[in-house]
Amino acid sequence: MAALAALGAPPVPEIFATMEEGPIPGEINPGEAWLESHGRSLGHFVDGTWLKAAGRTSLECQEATTGRTVATVPAGDSSDVAVAVAAAKAAAEAWAGLGGPQRGQRLTRLAATLAGDRRGTMGALLALAGGRPLCRTLGADLDLGLRLLQVPAAGAQLGPPGLEGWTPLGVVAVVLGGPCSLPALLWKLGPLLAMGNTALVLSPPAAAPPLLLLGELSGEGAALPPGVLNVLAGPPGLCRALHTHPEVTSVTFLGAPQEELEALVWGSPCRGPRLGGPRGGRVVVIVLDSADLDSAAAAIAATAAAPLALFPWGGCVVLAQDAVVAALERRLWARLGGLRLGDPTDPKTEVGPLPPGTRPPEGVVQEAREEGAQVFQAPLPPLPEGGCRFYPPTLISGVAPTSRCLREPAPGPLLVLLSVRGPTEAVALASALPQTAAAAVWAQDITVALDTADRLPQGLVWLNALDLLDPSGGCAGGAADTDLDEALREFGCPPWEQPSKVDELLSPLVTVDDPGDPELAQAVAAARGAAPGWGRLPRASRARVLRGASAAPAGGRGAPEDGDNGDTAGGLQRALLRWAARVERAGGAVQALVAAGLPGGVLTVLPGNSRGSGSRLARHHPDGLWLCGGDADCDWASAASVPRVWGVPAGLLGAPGQDPPPGAERELELRCTRPHCLWLPGGAP
Questions:
Q1: Which residues pair with residue 276 across a beta bridge?
Q2: Is 501 helix (H, G, I), strand (E, B) or coil?
Q3: Residue 403: CA atoms inside 13 Å, Cβ hemisphere, count?
Q4: Is the Cα dihedral 460, 463, 464, 468 positive or negative?
Q5: Taking a C-beta distance cutoff of 8 angstroms, is the pair 418, 324 a contact?
Q6: What is this structure's pTM?
Q7: Strands 49-51 and 44-46
Q8: CA-CA distance, 423 to 26, in Å (whole number)?
Q9: Burial group, residue 235, by CB count within 10 angstroms (0-12, 13-18, 19+)
Q10: CA–CA separation, 473 and 516 (whole Å)
Q11: Rounded mean pLDDT of 23-41?
């Protein structure tokens, strides 16, 4: 004890009384040390080396907490994009030619490098630039990011089933337009690289340092060949320079709000390039009367303090049953009031500043006050000098279901609490909330909990937990890349699809506004109303309808029309029987399906020309949009708001009278369904 006192350390009883963490060894921030090693003047990372064009304007990389400039990067322009695209194109053939096993080994090597001595540097840079607390960036976030690299690497080594004959797309661009965590980026880069593509990452200056470190690490230990991973930093409109590079066959946007995305995209679903939009949203938590309120409050407050890594926009809506809402509210006040705000590079910090580029949710909170809602805000502690980006942990309760705080997600440590009468009302409200990515059910009555979870529309549902994420069991909230199979398919070209020609410029289509189509609006409304009931029918009932419909074409009524090969009825019958066996929906003879018991609104056929129909349908914001042929094609700016858009390849269904090519029906099955993943506290999906 005397020796410890002589060294200036607190006595052992005081350590156990305060339970405070010790200082970082040496008091050296590894992120700052890495920036110093580069003279705080970074470049682009292209073709395995640093690219610093002479005479280029510099952009500042600012610390998320105080706005202090920690480094500078050159302002990327169209010439830098051209160099990076050329490097990625040159490396694409050799990288694809390595084969899945060798690519998997290289990605495993990259994950090992990231988990080694540079782990602390990456965590510190993420906290410094993004504002997420170090306890998350160095812990759960990085662990999840490593898994999101390792699982696609294992898939590439073993050869993912169902992807025989698939080829890489080529050069894929990943554009960061707003807050984006490292796991969200790696969940794109892992499958992208595993499928044999090369990557070009465009980053804003604020997020550039950790991504440039990732590029540097990709070259250490011969993890990735030069040109496979390229990172450019530049202004927000830098991605427009990709328009003139048709060799970029796919573009994925991360972190960009929907309204900004529509102004950045180009091309079309049928002509290319492929487009991947931002995923994520709010988390809905349902707390029933049998729930353990203490554990529920602790998990909800922790999620408010640091949103889950794959849902960077954050936001949490809590639907609590009437019998427990008051007790839960008191516990949330206590938990939110005890959160530690401060410097995100401090290991003790639980709540960091708002992400760069986001505005405080003051307008949403003020409007809730004016509507009569009760607003609790924890007092702000003394903050670092210049720390104006902090927002106090906030709980809004007593709001109307139509309140703005329920309609619009807001960044920051903000919770909205709403009382419900029971599980049925909770499911109805959770289904109506916009921009929700996942849900959680808190209840000790396992029967009620499982029934409630099964009725929720969110693709990712937790039971008595809020932090279970893994690519082997679902991790993106029911989006198109929820599991590994779909994530790999996003970046592969099937044998029935013809890739875009490299010399074909993919300019945007011209969309003509129309005054509106009442019949189309009525058909979309009918389909939206019929979808829940048809989807919840037992599988045997849906299969019975399709098998009954297959009997009508078998009768052979009517003569073949001009141009018919005489096997249309037989082909339709075989298709209906196949999809009845798969217990999935399939297009076909409308009268036969209705006569067989198909509910009204499930299938609607409208007469008229299909030209421009894609744009008109997209304006009604369906859950999915399939575009069959050039006449129905529309520009990506019109279709960007639709969660699932697919330009159906002409060779998918095969020649008339023939069965579809191998793997085509599996592709259709994945395109017309959404995974529903339920995580249990034991850790298994």
A1: 252
A2: coil
A3: 26
A4: negative
A5: no
A6: 0.84
A7: antiparallel
A8: 53
A9: middle
A10: 42
A11: 79
User: How large is the greatest C-alpha to C-alpha distance in the chain, in angstroms?
Assistant: 103
Task: Write a three-state SS string for 53-94.
Answer: CCCCCEEEEECCCCCCEEEEEECCCHHHHHHHHHHHHHHHHH
Q: What is the per-residue DSSP string for 30-54? A: HHHHHHHHTTTB--EEETTEEE--T
- Three-state secondary structure call for residue 203: strand
Q: Quick one: DSSP state of residue 248?
A: E
Per DSSP, the three-state class of 479 is coil
Instruction: Kindly report the three-state secondary structure assignment for every residue of 364-433.
Output: HHHHHHHCCCEEEECCCCCCCCCCCCCCCCEEEECCCCCCHHHHCCCCCCEEEEEEECCHHHHHHHHHHC
pLDDT digits (tens, 9 = 90+) for 408-424: 888 889 999 999 999 99
The model's pLDDT over 157-174, given as tens digits with 9 standing for 90+, comes to 887 767 778 889 899 999
Q: Whose structure tokens read 């009997």?
A: 551
Whole-number Å distance between alpha carbons of 415 and 393: 8
Residues facing residue 171 across a β-bridge: 198, 248
- In degrees and rounded to multiples of 5, residue 125 shows phi and psi of -65, -40
CA dist 111 → 108, 182, 223 (Å): 5, 13, 9
Helices (H), 536-588: 539-554, 568-582
The two structure tokens encoding residue 133: 């607390």
For residue 532, what are its two tokens?
A: 């829940």
The 10s digit of each residue's pLDDT in 143-159 is 989 998 998 998 888 87
